[in-house]
Design brief:
Blueprint (H helix, E strand, L loop, with lengths): L1 E6 L10 H9 L2 E5 L9 H8 L4 E3 L1 H6 L2 H4 L6 E6 L7 H12 L3 E5 L4 H4 L14 E3 L10 H11 L4 E5 L1 E2 L2 E2 L2 H15 L9 E6 L6 E6 H4 L9 E5 L5 H7 L4
Parallel strand pairs: 1-4, 1-5, 2-3, 2-4, 6-7
Antiparallel strand pairs: 7-12, 8-9, 10-11, 10-12
């Protein structure tokens, strides 16, 4: 039978494509990957709209117990739903490859992704460098990867998209992300991310969005409201990009 890997968009139940909705309605099992991102609505709304019972797929199921999903697709129609686009996270590529090795037919149905939705800011997509993320800092876990990626992209004149941590009952805000980067700057003092660094704070792209552009010290005080949030550090700007960014000051 078939494993349908379906991107369901960024905002709500109505972001699904017609092709994706058709596959869901034909599926015997519907899984929703729930740890790399989230929609802006509760799952019950999806179930009502799709008219299907949804099984939440956490990291353990997708990455360690994937056979529980794949074995069903040997004899049944299985829909695996991903917020955004199917290949927005490497864990989904792994599931795709595992299915192929098992000889399972796989159909991919794409949708909007945060990686393209950031185009709303006016920054040119092809000028984004490596995407990075900021996890919540803990006593024994305080990675500085995002700081290093910003510096590397900046040297190349490229923009940096920073995705923010998601926990079961907690979503990192733009304000928290800026605070973490400033703490790293205070420690390393390399002038990569200072209070005067120009940044874009973004919330709920693809839906009821909010975007603000300014110095990190200013954006860090802004209320961006409900999740999900992301942070962008622009690189070298084209004059059209500069004009576009004026909209968000």
């Amino acid at each position: 039978m078939t494993l349908y890997m379906i991107g369901i968009g960024l905002t709500d139940e109505e972001d699904i494509t017609i092709k994706g909705l058709k596959a869901i309605k034909e599926a015997d099992y519907v899984f929703l990957e729930c740890y790399t991102s989230r929609l802006q609505v509760v799952m019950k709304r999806l179930e009502k709209f799709y008219k299907k019972k949804i099984i939440l797929a956490d990291r353990d199921l997708v990455e360690k117990k994937a056979d529980n999903i794949l074995d069903k697709a040997k004899n049944k129609e299985v829909a695996f739903l991903v917020v955004g686009d199917v290949f927005g996270a490497t864990t989904h590529t792994d599931l795709f490859l595992r299915a192929k090795k098992k000889g399972i037919k796989v159909e991919i149905i794409h949708n909007a992704s945060i990686l393209t939705a950031v185009g709303l800011t006016g920054l040119e997509l092809y000028k984004f460098g490596k995407t990075t993320s900021i996890p919540y800092h803990e006593k024994s876990f305080k990675p500085e990867t995002a700081y290093d990626v910003i510096e590397k992209n900046r040297k190349a004149g490229l923009h940096t998209l920073i995705l923010l941590d998601i926990k079961p009952n907690r979503n990192m805000s733009v304000n928290e992300a800026i605070k973490i980067l400033l703490e790293i700057e205070n420690k390393r003092k390399e002038k990569v991310f200072t209070k005067n660094t120009m940044v874009l704070g973004c919330a709920r792209l693809g839906g009821d969005y909010k975007i603000k552009y300014g110095k990190a010290s200013e954006i860090g005080k802004e209320d961006f409201g409900k999740p999900l949030h992301c942070l962008i550090v622009p690189g070298k700007l084209h004059f059209v990009e500069k004009e576009a960014l004026e909209n968000w000051k």
